[in-house]
Design brief:
The complex is a heterodimer. Chain A is of the alpha/beta class. Helices cover 36% and strands 13% of the residues of chain A. Chain A has two domains: 144 residues, 3-Layer(aba) Sandwich (Rossmann fold), CATH 3.40.50; 165 residues, 3-Layer(aba) Sandwich (Rossmann fold), CATH 3.40.50.1370. The C terminus of chain A is likely disordered. Chain B has two domains: 120 residues, Urease, subunit C, domain 1, CATH 2.30.40; 311 residues, Metal-dependent hydrolases (TIM Barrel, Alpha-Beta Barrel). The N and C termini of chain B lie close together (9 Å). The chains are: A alpha/beta, B alpha/beta.
Chain lengths: 359, 459
């Protein structure tokens, strides 16, 4: 794997390896010194063409915990409106010897374009592109779900898949890169994915996706999902005739107190509620749901750093540039060679995983 | 800048004796070209040739009427960095064209007699093909009021085709009036069928692929609904309608229905819509970004069948050169359009002739005879017979070549056929009896009468 552009192209083996390495990274975060020397001397550029403080600081924390040098390049708005093209920006970063570029861009496909071009040699990590994908968000969601699934199954998280798990994703699927990345990744990992939302916010062509679509949230909840992931409703959709009013949206597709109670009534004691943040409390999710013990929202944020550490580590450590087709078996990352680093450093070895972190 | 070509111009009275050409892929015969006309066909050609005639051995080559493009973007005036009349018409000659229609979306827009005469004069000065300006339907392509269609029709450019191409004439009243008005001078409205509200921000065909790629969809219905409206308007007011770059199977059905009802509608398909599908967009490479967008393989098949059965009348290239910076960027920011003049013959041979859907006579019908009739070009798209104007090409159908955009005569490097191996090569192009292309390479432009005048004010 040279780049991380989408989860659609991620094999189950590569995805599991990423999640397993993320477990090790998570253990690092439990130490007194939360830092590994793995990427010392490497340069990671956070190239953000769109506001996203959360994702940017998550990547920044991840890179710093791996001892990489971090450059934040925040260019709000499109590159063209700034007058400099993506190509020129990329070539500038190339001239600065960036080893990895973490890119957030409002145009779908911009990271793929960067990776395929000869503008820059660096590894490219997609930190969200338009309405296409947000692979590290899906990986952190999968990581969070896997810990939960392993815990209630009485298993250890590493090596576990999501087989048998039922995940319901609710809201504006049409414009959601989080939904797309999750549909591909969660199904690759063995989960069954259900989608619910207004028909106007489901893409034409969703019928070809490996999931079931519901227009009625309560019918979807009646399928007894193990997790309900609420998508953020973007402000710009609210006045574009996708639905009559935010109140009607909230009544039909919001996770409100009534639906929170419904989970209890249905005896779905282990069903968790997820949200990629930032939330519109009272719109797609009620405050009670967001703050309930079922909510994994803060765990998702915490796990984001571990997953992004794993992605940076695997892309930059030099020994994983083999392609996915070689990865028929998930490797035991704990036994893998160290990154190709001249300096002696602390080995990356497995540490005990704390229990019950998702609840 | 272009004077060197004119300096190298040979005696315009050069005679060409073409021996052993396969006429429309049927009978083999000699052709004698003299004084801008086909002087003789058959055994008498050699006998009538003067001793100074240049003999071209055309054994194995197919002789066809010069291709006529109803849909070319030459970018001049305004975007001479993208293309000029000179470079675009060179590309056209190399591609086997003897006439091209220059779309009106230049800057300034070709919406007055002055601009269409300028483009026409630049074409005459270049001398590689007959450059026929298309006039805008509405002032500034603004879609609000009619441009001076009559003035353009009566100008020296003698405009017959009117189009706001790139933008749909979406106001139904304005479209009705335009259709009616051009009846006064036998004009035709060439519609870019795209319902604007249904395609706001549209990036690619709406369907399975757009759903995965997260690119805003351009639904087939946005094209089909306008075509349906326009054929009914054309029927109501008894006018002639031409539909540009038809791209969907549903559009084909509507046009087939309209023709069955006797509505005077003609339709065009581009070479790229006959070959390429939306799956190429998965690369996010903007060289595949075009309007209307690449569609599905089912659409491609329907378009091929429609071109074969006459539902679609003509191939139009929609040649749309762009400077590299307009394609060397993110998909959403990239310009729409593809070059096509130098690949049209090969793509149509590949998609239509080698599949058995069209023979060379059919090829001539869709690339020359019918487009000339729609554009009212009386000296183009004619039979290859004695006495006819000598607008013809010699094609080697057995040739195979690999598309290299960097080697093209157009300024645009945005060919979606890059690195594809395609059949068929234009060996010679004769424009009014003058060889603009010989041995597959540019020869010399034809010297047209007002050349000196135009060259003077170009400086």
């Amino acid at each position: 794997m040279k780049h991380l552009l989408s989860t659609r192209d991620l094999s189950a083996a590569s995805a599991l390896r990423l999640l397993d390495v993320a477990e090790e990274m998570s253990a690092v975060g439990e130490r007194e010194i939360k830092k590994l020397p793995a990427l010392r001397g490497r340069t990671v550029v956070n190239l953000f063409f769109e506001d996203s403080t959360r994702t940017r600081i998550s990547f920044e924390a991840a890179a710093k915990r791996l001892s990489a040098d971090v450059i934040n390049f925040v260019a709000k708005g499109s590159s063209v409106s700034k007058g400099e093209s993506l190509k020129d920006t990329a070539q500038t970063l190339e001239a600065m010897s960036a080893d990895a570029v973490v890119i957030r861009h409002p145009a779908s496909g911009a990271p793929a374009r960067l990776a395929a071009s000869d503008w820059i040699d660096a590894a490219v990590i997609n930190a969200g592109d338009g309405t296409h994908e947000h692979p590290t968000q899906a990986l952190l969601d999968a990581f969070t779900l896997r810990r939960h699934w392993a815990r209630i199954g009485g298993n250890a998280s590493p090596g576990t898949t999501l087989a048998g798990m039922k995940v319901l994703i609710v809201g504006d699927v049409l414009h959601s890169r989080v939904a797309r990345s999750n549909v591909w990744l969660l199904t690759t990992l063995g989960a069954e994915v259900l989608l619910a939302g207004p028909p106007t916010l489901m893409p034409v062509g969703v019928g070809a996706w490996p999931c079931t679509v519901f227009y009625d949230l309560d019918v979807a909840i009646a399928q007894r999902p193990d997790a309900v992931m609420m998508l953020r409703l973007q402000a710009e959709r609210m006045n574009a005739a996708f639905f009559p009013s935010t109140r009607e949206y909230s009544r039909r597709w919001g996770f409100d107190d009534g639906r929170l109670a419904l989970l209890d009534i249905m005896g779905l004691d282990d069903t968790v509620i997820m949200h990629p943040g930032p939330m519109n409390r009272g719109l797609e999710i009620s405050a009670a749901a967001a703050d309930s013990p079922r909510s994994t929202i803060l765990a998702q944020v915490r796990n984001g750093v571990s997953v992004r550490m794993a992605a940076l580590y695997l892309l930059l450590s030099g020994d994983t540039h083999d392609d996915d087709q070689h990865d028929d078996e998930p490797q035991d990352d704990a036994q893998r060679d160290e990154p190709d680093d001249n300096e002696p450093h602390e080995p990356l070895h497995p540490l005990p995983i704390p229990e019950g972190r998702t609840r | 800048m272009t004077d060197m070509n004119h300096a190298a111009n040979p005696d315009p009275s050069t005679e060409y004796l073409i021996t052993g050409a396969s006429i429309l892929g049927k009978t083999t015969a000699d052709l004698l070209l003299r004084d801008g006309r086909i002087a003789a066909v058959g055994d008498s050609a050699a006998a009538q040739a003067s001793p100074s005639a240049v003999t071209i051995d055309a054994a194995g080559l197919v002789a066809l009427p010069g291709m006529v493009d109803l849909h070319t973007h030459l970018r001049e005036p305004g975007r001479e960095d993208a293309e000029t009349v000179e470079t675009g018409s060179r590309a056209a000659a190399l591609g086997g064209f003897t006439a091209i229609h220059a779309m009106a979306n230049s800057s300034p827009v070709a919406d007055t007699a002055g601009v269409v005469e300028q483009v026409h004069s630049l074409g005459l000065a270049s001398g590689w093909v007959d450059v026929r300006p298309v006039g805008a339907v509405t002032v500034g392509l603004g879609g609000e009021r009619l441009a001076e269609l009559g003035a353009m029709a009566e100008s020296r450019a003698n405009v017959r085709v009117f189009s706001d191409d790139g933008i749909c004439v979406h106001d139904p009243v304005l479209m009705r009036r335009a259709l009616e008005y051009v009846k006064a001078f036998d004009g035709v409205i060439a519609q870019h069928a795209q319902e604007p509200r249904l395609t706001e921000g549209a990036q690619m065909n709406e369907g399975d692929v757009s759903a995965v790629l997260g690119l805003a969809g351009w639904p087939a219905v946005a094209e089909e609904s306008i075509i349906a409206r326009d054929v009914l308007l054309a029927q109501h007011v008894g006018s002639r309608l031409h539909v540009c770059h038809v791209s969907t199977a549903g559009s084909v059905e509507i046009i087939r229905w309209a023709k069955a009802r006797g509505i005077d509608v003609t339709a065009e398909v581009t070479p790229h819509h006959l070959l390429l599908t939306e799956d190429l967009v998965r690369s996010y490479d903007p060289v595949y970004k075009v309007n209307p967008p690449l569609r599905t393989s089912g659409d491609v098949q329907a378009l091929r069948e429609a071109l074969a059965d006459g539902t679609i009348d003509v191939v139009g290239t929609d040649h749309a050169p762009h400077p590299s910076e307009h394609k060397d960027c993110e998909w959403a920011q990239a310009a729409m359009g593809m070059t096509g003049l130098e690949t049209a013959l090969s793509v149509v041979q590949h998609a239509m002739v080698e599949t058995g859907l069209l023979d060379w006579e059919g090829f001539a019908r869709v690339t020359s005879v019918t487009p000339a009739r729609i554009g009212r070009l009386h000296d183009q798209g004619r039979e290859l017979a004695a006495g006819e104007p000598a607008n013809l090409i010699l094609v080697d159908p057995a040739a195979r070549w690999t598309v290299d955009p960097a080697a093209m005569a157009t300024k645009g490097r945005n060919s979606p056929f890059r690195d594809l191996e395609l059949p068929g090569s234009v060996r010679a192009t004769f424009y009014a009896g003058h060889a603009t292309v010989l041995d597959g390479a540019l020869a010399t432009p034809r010297q047209n009468a007002p050349v000196q005048e135009v060259l003077a004010w170009k400086k």
